[in-house]
Amino acid sequence: MAAPVMTDDRVASAGSSAAGLNGPTLQDTEFAFLRQFVYDQCGIALSDQKRQLVQGRLQRRLRALRLRDFSEYCELLKHDPASELGELASAISTNVTAFFREMHHYDLLIEKLLPEWIEQKRRDGGRLRIWSAGCSTGEEPYAIAMVLAEALERTGAKIDAKILATDLSPQALEQARRGVYAFDRLGGVSDERRKRWFLRGQGEYDGLASVHPRLRELVTILPLNLLHDWPMQGPFDAIFCRNVVIYFDKPTKEKLFARYARMLPSGGYLFLGHSESMHGLSNDFELIGRTVYRKRT
């Protein structure tokens, strides 16, 4: 079993003075630079109301990097943006995820899509590909892997099936790669699936569970900035991009949905989060269920 990982609780308080107990203050010019940098690099629009949150969360990064103030942090971003981009994005966003969150999406996979895809791939020898875009700490792609593995077992099909899981946050990706979770994170997993797909920790790992090696075989975890170049070519049968575009403005959403459309064949599926919509943002998709979209033929 992999070693446990301690996750960032993301609780931080904003400082009130340059030499205060909570760290340096984020000045107007520094916040203006960070807002533009985050928008250009991540597509995230930070409002004035987010200033205290940004200050509080980034004070931890200043301490970790041994920087005296936010001006030094801004200089780091100017001269070496790639080295810090993932940590910055991780600090200012909140990775809220769970196994089998929005269960109606998994019901559609289990009852309709996976049986159809597997039969089709078995006939024509094609590949089955699903992309979890914004996979956070891995609960989503591993949940998809569970239902995919079960569908393959039921049919006895021997096909090339894989799940791509990507995220910008290096901390989230590290936990996803380890695949180790506290028992209280398995609330959405049935008892049957817990027994089938998790290995229970013992001794110093008591209270933890590691995902089954079969799930690891199905999932490839890679870093990716959705606003930058994509190395993969597709096509994907389905893309899960849930609770990601809530951070983006309208132009960024429009560009992202257009890129997703190019990664999907006619009839391919795009899954969004419960508070997200494609209304007025794309003509490439039609709504067929609760936050489930299908690419038009």
Automatic annotation (TrEMBL):
Task performed by this protein: Methylation of the membrane-bound methyl-accepting chemotaxis proteins (MCP) to form gamma-glutamyl methyl ester residues in MCP.
Top-level EC class: transferase
Keyword Lipid biosynthesis: no
Binding annotation for S-adenosyl-L-methionine: 95, 97, 101, 140, 167, 225-226, 242-243
Domain CheR-type methyltransferase: 19-297
Gene source species: Dyella thiooxydans
CDD domains named among the record's database cross-references: AdoMet_MTases
MF terms in GO: protein-glutamate O-methyltransferase activity
EC number, UniProt record: 2.1.1.80
Alphabetically ordered keywords of this record: Methyltransferase, S-adenosyl-L-methionine, Transferase
Annotated coiled-coil segments of the chain: none
Protein name, UniProt field: Chemotaxis protein methyltransferase
An example Gene Ontology biological process: methylation
Catalysed conversion reaction: L-glutamyl-[protein] + S-adenosyl-L-methionine = [protein]-L-glutamate 5-O-methyl ester + S-adenosyl-L-homocysteine
Listed Pfam families: CheR (PF01739), CheR_N (PF03705)
Lineage per the UniProt record: Bacteria, Pseudomonadati, Pseudomonadota, Gammaproteobacteria, Lysobacterales
Keyword S-adenosyl-L-methionine assigned: yes
